[in-house]
From TrEMBL:
Database matches in InterPro entries: VanZ-like
This protein's record includes keyword Transmembrane helix: yes
Taxonomic lineage: Bacteria, Pseudomonadati, Bacteroidota, Cytophagia, Cytophagales
Protein name, as recorded: VanZ family protein
Keywords: Membrane, Transmembrane, Transmembrane helix
Residue span(s) of domain VanZ-like: 7-114
Record-annotated membrane-spanning stretches: 17-35, 47-65, 72-89, 101-119
Organism from which the protein derives: Dyadobacter pollutisoli
Record carries keyword Transmembrane helix: yes
Alphabetical list of Pfam families matching this protein: VanZ (PF04892)
Amino acid sequence: MSNLISTITDFIARQRWLGWFWTLLILVACTWPGKDIPAAPIMGFDKIVHSSLFMVWIILFLLAYPQKTRMLVLLGMAYGLGLEFYQQLLPFDRTFDWWDAVADAVGVILGLGIKTMVLDRYRQRLY
């Protein structure tokens, strides 16, 4: 199992395009008309989705660019906030939501914590 996790994280670290592809997927998801998105199964589900998207985003980029942690954290938060301004400009039913931007930032912080406290510590024990 430990070999598998190490192999997967090493693979992701070498595939820098994955972070950029995920960035594009987030943009597409945030551009999608709201009326075409199914209703949330529980209250606040939208915020869980936002946090999850940005948690994966930061983990992908931190694995690919481990020396750029501070810049990536700030960039992730800025990207989330920028997407909210972008949604406000769309001609259909997407709007700016501060709580979405907060959820994006929370996802970035959670992803940083997972990468630092779980993946990095786990990988250190392997070597």
